[in-house]
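seq:
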Amino acid sequence: MDAIYIPHLLKSQNRSIKFQFSEMLSGLETLTPVRGEMAVIHQNTYLEVVARAEAIVTLVCHRCLNQYNHRLVIDTSEIIWLANSTGSETEIEVETPLEELVEILSPEGYFEPGDWVYQNLCLIMPLQQLCDGPCEIPNQNPGTEGREKGIDSRWAALADLKQQLQ
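struct:
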């Protein structure tokens, strides 16, 4: 997706751009291209971004370590304020009140729709990745001392080191 030059929005019909997209986003590994539609509307002091998009990603279950596919769907809108930067670049630390935690773009700058979609898809990625099926403990190879005690194979080297120290 190409960047949108914000001053050009003022000259477009209804001061908005509406488009559909279907592409792979760099940094986000998906099985299918990210497909959706977006509208960016210039409202004088802010941009209103409305989007619907979806993609399918492959995740690893945190319980059984099996891979499974998960559908990511965003159907959201956001207001992005248009203001020139007021902070000095030499400031090291700036205290920002909670109500000011919003995205701000320069009215003479660019809006990156691909980056915006990427960020929203990352925000809805599940923190606890669990498959839908019955989870079982990963297959274990019998015959090792640690496995008989129920120790995960990834800890086998540490168990050997522990026996050497004793």
